[in-house]
Amino acid sequence: AEFCERPDGEGYAVSATGEAQPDIPGINSNLIVSYNDGAFTAEVTADYSRGMLSGQVNAGVTNRTVGEDGELTDTANPDNPLIVYGGGSLTIQIAPWLQGTAGVQFAPNGEINVTGEIGLPGELEIFPRSEINKSIFNIAVQIPIIPGILAEIGGGLSAQAGIGPGVIDELRLGIEYNPAREEDTRVTGDAHLNIPADAGLRLSVRAGIGLGVTGLSATGGLEIGGTLGIEGAAEAGVHVDWTPGAGLDLTADLAVHAQPSFKFDISGYVSVRALGFSVYDERWELASFQFGSDLRFGIRMPIHYHEGEPFNVSLDDVEFEVPDIDTSEMLRGLISRIA
Fold first, then answer.
1. DSSP 3-state of 70
2. Is the Cβ–Cβ distance between 129 and 141 less than 8 Å?
3. Domain spans of the chain?
4. CB neighbours (10 Å) of residue 172?
């Protein structure tokens, strides 16, 4: 502390410096205090953590007047009340799927109010990719020819679909938030919902010959398999109106259709089974080519996501549009292509 005569000769002035523990929620660091002839100032640059907010702020307590630009007057009336001032840019974790940055300012009573637009990343993932598989039919028959020699005929038709990851992009969100009243938090704005999807259809026929004894069989032969594949996405503009109580709720309809050609592959295979279990199964692709057209294939399903609930895709929700395949005609066409 110092005690000296004022420059104008009218009395004496007291000045002092030191440290003080602030009563500002979210700040634990000591303030650097200065007092000069009635003007009290205590400032700190410190880590801040409270509620959804975290980061670093500049904060202070003073009885000087704080201008709109944040600058302090040089002098103060000793009877002025102490007020809090300052601010910074903090990370705000609003929900597991939503984190951004926001500019904040301290109110004179020490509370922080966040009002304005949130700085956000390019896109936010709200649920991961899910896959489902459906066997439409499957058959495998072994026919004894003579003792120890057997023929194998099999085939199947299966469908596969993948949905996600679901992402929100093109976000422009505003927020009203006060850590002292988190239940009143509200996030509003607009975004773009993008849910990619893909689907595939696999048709296979295999024939072979092999050896078989009690409990053990080994067969080898050829498998002809055809695959249809499509890709697409459900896209929609969505309005976000989020509160802690209601959470995020999104609904969309996903439909992907196309008329692709089958991509056929011819493969050799060897399969060894013992006591009903597969002990060796290997395939080698020998050739592949495109065949067929006008085979409309697709999927349709509703999408519903509610924050806090797992995103599960049920097979009951997925509607596969499977083309009517004339296997006899397709087989004749394949033979002509192979020959």
1. coil
2. no
3. 2-112, 123-338
4. 12
Concatenated DSSP letters of 158-169: EEEEEE--EEEE
Q: What are 255-273's pLDDT values in tens digits?
A: 776 666 667 676 777 777 7
In eight-state DSSP terms, residue 122 is: S
Q: Is residue 289 classed as helix, strand or coil in its secondary structure? A: strand
Nearest to 196 by CA among 228, 230, 170, 158: 230
Distance of CA 157 to the CA centre of its chain: 33
How do residues 206-252 score in pLDDT, each as one tens digit?
777 776 666 666 776 667 677 777 777 777 777 778 888 887 777 76
Structure token digits, residue 248: 């995020």
The Cβ of residue 22 has, within 10 Å, a number of other Cβ atoms equal to 21
pLDDT at residue 258, as a whole number: 65
Greater model confidence, 213 or 51: 51
Backbone angles phi and psi of 47, in degrees to 5 = -70, 140
Q: 248: helix, coil or strand?
A: coil
* Residue 240 confidence (pLDDT): 78
Query: pTM (2 decimals)?
Result: 0.52
Cβ density class 122-160: b for 16+ within 10 Å, e for less: eebebbebbebeeeeeeeeeeeeeeeeebebebbbbebb
Task: Report the distance separating Cα 236 and Cα 252, nearest Å.
Answer: 8
Alpha helices in the chain (DSSP H): 327-338
Strand (E) positions, the chain?
Answer: 2-5, 12-20, 31-36, 39-50, 53-62, 83-95, 98-106, 112-117, 123-127, 130-146, 149-163, 166-177, 186-213, 216-242, 249-258, 262-274, 277-291, 297-306, 319-321
Query: What are the tokens at 288?
Result: 């592949």
Strand partners, 236: 193
Q: Summarize pLDDT for 267-292 with one digit per residue, the tens.
A: 777 777 777 677 777 777 766 666 55
